[in-house]
Amino acid sequence: MAGLLQGLDASFEPAPLPAKSRPSPFPSRHHVSNAEAGPSTPGTTSKLIDLTNKASTSSSYQTPKKQRIGNTTLQSENGGPVADVDMDELLAGAEDWDFDDWVPSPKKPSPKKRSSVIPAQPTAKPRAGAEAKAFVPDPYTRCVVDAVGEQLDVRSGKDLKHQQVIYLQNDWYDTDVRPGDIVNAVGPFEHTSSAKPSIKITSQSNLLILHPDILLTATALSNAPQCARKPLLSSLVRASNDISPALVWGNMLHEVMQNCLSEKRWEEEWINEQIEEVLLNGLGMLLALNVSIVTARTELRKRAIGLQIFKERYISDVPKPDAILSDTRARSSDSAALLAIPQLHEIEEDIWSPKYGLKGKVDATVEAVIAETPPASSSPSIPAITSGPRPFEIKTGRSLAGLEHRAQTMLYTLLASERYGTDVPDGLLYYTQSDTVVRVPRSRNEIRGLIVARNALAGYMIKRVGREGEFNRKRNKDEEERKDIEEIGMGAETFLPPPIDDEHACKRCYTVDTCMLYRYAYSAKTSETKLPMLESPPTASNAPESLVNTYDLKTGHLTPEQGLFFRKWETLLSLEERDLVRFRRELWTIGAGDREKKGRCFAGMVVKPLTGVEQDAEKDEKNAAGSSPAGEGRVYKFSYTFVRSVKWAPSSQGGSSESDQRNLLNGHLNVGDPITVSVEPHLLAFAQGFITDLTPVAVKLGIDHKVDLEWIRARMRKDDPQFVAGEVVFRIDKDELFGGMGRMRNNLAQLFYANGDRKRLELVVDLRKPLFSPSIPPESLAIESSSSQHVKNLNLSQKEAVSKVLSAEDYALVLGMPGTGKTTVISALIKILVAQGKTVLLTSYTHSAVDTILRKLDDEADDKSGAGLAFGVLRLGNLEKIHPDVRKYTLSAKRKAETVEQLEAQWMGPPVVAATCLSVKNPLARRGGLEVSLFRRLSDAHPDSVVDLREQYRMNEDIMALSNKLIYSDRLKCGSAEVANRKLVLPNAPGKGDLTWLDASHRRQRALEKNCWLAHLASPETTAVFVDTDSLGPGVAHDSRVGDLVQNEVEAELVVQLVEALVGKWGLKKKDVGVISLYRQQVKLIKSLLLAGKSTGRAVEEEGEEVEVLTADKSQGRDKECVVVSMVRSNDHGQVGELVKDWRRMNVSFTRARSKLVIFGSRKTLKSDPLLAQFFELMEGRGWVYELPIGAHVVHKQDLERDEENVGVEEDDVCVVDEVVEGVRPVVEDQILKKAAGVLKGRPILQDLVSSES
């Protein structure tokens, strides 16, 4: 590695600035602006910012051009183009210029060489008379490796049928390539008639990118030459406490300078204003440093002094004489180069490159004008001028052009070339403390060395994230039943590079604790384990003595069993992480249309133009929110609404109708989800953000970058000169955030560090028995001053639970079965603990469960005094997912802190902090034990630490019987006879009054009232019932797929009709009805049907009174008088899916109901599962299964969609089949029509019931 990167030495010293200033030989260029633009609309104004305070430039990116004088082309040594300047004015007085007096750059060992793989080519069409040369990027081919030997046999193409050969030579030869791996061959394949197309990857030409779907950051890769282990460890374990003053000052100064560039303002007063704003936004970092805002202000103002110098020296149309550009590869004979920065392209630009397997966030991308004089021997001595976009990195440290900085900047030139469609031969480093700008040329040798290093890191990372073949391989039964999760695909190979064991470097490394922990955990062995040792501890024979001592200091307190515990759970987290990697790479490996079929993308989207009224509303929202209309905690710079392009053609495959495919609710994407915005094929993830609103026809995004339509069109013309300006079509993809797994690893690691949480290490890992002090008798709680007022309404088992918790010195476990008052007990405990001066962390897997308890606290406080809670609460989380009633406890609802002390009071003052924890999705991770809750681990180890709540006050005895028989072995009891006999009596029940809408419906339909399914389900005597949809007819109520999501349209229609009847016709309050399904797509479908309805559609939108439609997880903590459950799965193959087999979720769904539980589903399909067979045995034994009459889903449909006043009783007011179907909502119209026709065909009696008589 050292040989590959030998050119990246750290010996660079910048050229000194000129001792005196002299008039610039470059007169200011005349700037001609475009014609005045029309009214501004979102996405139409260019993001290219003229920094020189002159009239704005063209709205699209102007490709740099070569200038010619006579037959002479002015260009740089590398063939780059000159700036677009007035040459007559530029050369005026050239005979008087004194080039010999310019200060040269320092000597370097060798002249810079140009790469054959990354050529510096002209980037645009020259002026008249010049030869036009367009930038042509290096081609690359994505391949799958079939065989590895003296050559790589690969396949490529969409169908992987093109057989090719790759020869690895020189330093590429040792690349760890294996059969099945994905590689990118960067460079052209040679085609011959007698052999397979081939390419040679050598030290002089072409590149090989191993595992290109692993996008390594340029920052991480720049650290790899010193220690390849450090960047991988820092990505695995994301510590939240690695904050230093230098890091904080650097981040803040970055933001100040970026604001200066964006706003084109550099005066001292304005810079100070920006410092104040940055300080206010960064109070959290100051709090972590324990630094006052006064100290921080002084430090930042001192560091920002050079910003005005930078502006005066470098912000200009043409280079000024003192605008020295130092060069890391200049020779002593070279004259100094000069730099001007006239324009800004973008700030904090995220660029992903699956071509090179890289990604990076560039501080700024600027338009640079560089003037260089040829060597003294050249004639004539006319300066060569180049211009074009350049990555601009802001460095606030003292070191100049160190190895890490230069490596990072070189990699950014590759990314910028892809983003801007032009050659970017070098990048710029600006050092704020020395007011120096350093030019970092890109060279073939250095890029080759960095890519080889990248491949080495990717080779280690792939062992953790999983190779391509492992995702789709079906494991046999023996593998699935193995107890040790590492034996079925993880842990067989080391996944970290070997440690460097360098005394000086390791001592100062910020990952030393993590590094030593991994070395211990993956080398620990016991007599029972057979796992291979993947790491080795430092010993006196292979490491300095000081490192051996450091290892003992960091790990000497751990036991082998503790090390193996960390290894197991860290491995399980990696399994969970695999899905995130697999989903993210779909952004560039799967087209938008195909990914939309999987439910993880919106294809064919265009920006919706805003009317003037809408624009005003946007401004009002921003002003009200204080930052952006997107909401809490997240500051979105821009907000856009996207709709389907009218030109977008839905897929003809898959069986879904066009209306289904156009409906944006059909998929995995939901409000609050992270997303990326792309334009295929080259603008990948150019903007990132979150969904802030979602309807069937539009999606609103809060994103971090401007959607500049004119710039995008100009960029598309670079790839396709024939491109005609028109609408720009976007794809919006669901993104996967990796930070969560890194934080979870950090939380896990904190238990094992030498200065970590020793107490919880003993309790959670070693399972030490918890200690209890003498408990307070339950009857004495009413006497205690801190608890008396909070326990007076609790029953005996609830008081016992409170007593157990208050006597715990370590932990106590309260097992609350459904309806037993867990929320009530937790609420009482919170108030008692706060009264005792303790602090409380309230957490759950779901936002719903957390918010239910906070709302309970609110309700009890309001009932007592009306003044609200007597103590502070801090609710953390995504505002879009927090219940509106408790958003008042979020930071966004509080007055913005203006001092560190105020922020500390907001963060640390509230004694109660409420947040959610993460759930588990990966099946292997679940099977390995990652889904085992801490509650279960502790309760299984120490049952005596558990206290039960047995008396429930929610469900009547029929509903309670389901959980009691199937799960709780009859331990659950009704708290009173009133609860046991509870029934739902509707205000306007069927049969009340002279003639109801249902009677009129029966007359029109010629239906038999005694066989009416709605009347049966509405009866007070029907308390728990399974509604069998099989009886509707073969295939009528089968489930269907939207991509890889499952829904059941007929079942959804039945659910909606029942809800509409209960609420719209029979007077049940909306807040007393809940709909639950295990499938998110079914939840979306039912919501869309309710929104389209006339009786209850508005209820979904009304604040404070809703017909809630929830997943099982989100229904936790809720209870309703009537709950309707949609089971969804209905098919001829008996496929019930994993979700239906999850009895935890099933139990939650069934136990939300107080008086009536209605379950819709296919008995034939669901009964095929052994656990569900027990459920049906109980339901059938009690007579609680109801078979729907044929055509039930269409009989009452039109009546429920009518306004009540229009319901009549005339004999001729009857409906025909066409009219019945016509009313079906757009989402399911085509499918219902086909199924209804199929049911009625060949059934004359049914046709008489639902058709008109001639």
UniProtKB/TrEMBL annotation:
Gene Ontology, cellular component aspect: cytoplasm; nucleus
Catalysis performed (reactions): ATP + H2O = ADP + phosphate + H(+)
Start and end residues of each DNA replication factor Dna2 N-terminal domain: 161-368
Biased composition (Polar residues): 41-78
MF GO annotations: 4 iron, 4 sulfur cluster binding; 5'-3' DNA helicase activity; ATP binding; DNA binding; endonuclease activity; hydrolase activity; metal ion binding
Subcellular location: Nucleus
Region (Disordered): 1-84, 96-132
All copies of domain DNA2/NAM7 helicase helicase, residue ranges: 793-900
Signal peptide stretch: none
Record GO biological process: DNA repair; DNA replication
Record EC number: 3.6.4.12
Keyword terms: 4Fe-4S, ATP-binding, DNA damage, DNA repair, DNA replication, DNA-binding, Endonuclease, Helicase, Hydrolase, Iron, Iron-sulfur, Metal-binding, Multifunctional enzyme, Nuclease, Nucleotide-binding, Nucleus
SUPFAM superfamilies named in the record: P-loop containing nucleoside triphosphate hydrolases
EC supergroup of this enzyme: hydrolase
Domain DNA2/NAM7 helicase-like C-terminal: 930-1163
Hydrolase is among the record's keywords: yes
Cofactors named for this entry: [4Fe-4S] cluster
InterPro entries tied to this protein: Coronavir_polyprotein_1ab (IPR050534), DNA2/NAM7-like_C (IPR041679), DNA2/NAM7_AAA_11 (IPR041677), DNA_replication_fac_Dna2_N (IPR014808), P-loop_NTPase (IPR027417), PDDEXK-like_dom_sf (IPR011604), SF1_C_Upf1 (IPR047187)
The family this protein is said to belong to: Belongs to the DNA2/NAM7 helicase family.
Protein name: DNA replication ATP-dependent helicase/nuclease DNA2
Native organism: Ephemerocybe angulata
